[in-house]
Fold this sequence. Notes:
By secondary structure, this protein is α/β, with parallel strands linked by helices. It has a single domain, classed as 3-Layer(aba) Sandwich (Rossmann fold). It is built from 7 helices and 7 strands. The chain has helices spanning about 20-30, 40-55, 70-85, 105-135, 155-175, 205-210, 220-230; strands at about 10, 35-40, 60-65, 90, 140-145, 180-190, 245. The chain is globular and about 50 Å long.
Amino acid sequence: MYSDLSGKTAIVTGSSKGIGKGIAERFGKEKMNVVVDYLTDPSGAEDTKAAIESNGGKAVIVQADVSKEQGIRLLMETAAKEFGSLDVLVNNAGFSESAQSEELTLENWQRVLDVNLTGAFIASREAIKHMTDNGIKGSIINITSVHQTIPKVANVHYGVTKAGLKMLTETLALEYAEQGIRINAIGPGTINTPANPVHEQDEQAKQQTLTKIPMKKVGEPEQIAAAAAWLASSEADYVTGATLFVDGGMTLYPSQLK
């Protein structure tokens, strides 16, 4: 636990399930105030809120489309209204719709870019405005992927957004380092989430998945959440512009990940 996080306020986009839910719940354990964002899963958002509050934190739920400026502004306004400030932003919302590149429609391409990359830019821009206006030395954490560096077949749009998030992280970190605003990224490997239900795979598929992971095991959302809590805390106050891979070693040999 990081005592300096107690009472601070965080927005976690896409926090009704998966990695975002894990991060929001860990922030609850840190006794933080959390704005829980969802788009289509209200019951999942309620579960996240309940877990945060049972762990000693505070939470409020917002339905917001993070690919739209009005959605991001609603999240920011809620943080200010309910908790008075914003200290931590986690750009977690993201998805992919797999398709071979020659069959990838412009609509599909644009939808993934809007959520995964444009939404993170808008949210980061608005958070930075709030932090600079109020003298807050805050933290922004972008959830990228091992696929910011490892190509993924039939997911060119997804890979492009994750590589874009890497450069967004590094550019903003450089731009706002002097103001004490730290911008970092976490690059998950194969994590057991509803979007990637490894536990539901048959044995052959599981073993094929494990051949890509040097540690021979799949990660859990709680492990990404632990990295997020550290990056948000003062323990990481000399860390900015970095991507912390939490991947069981997947990025050690990308040539095997075809």
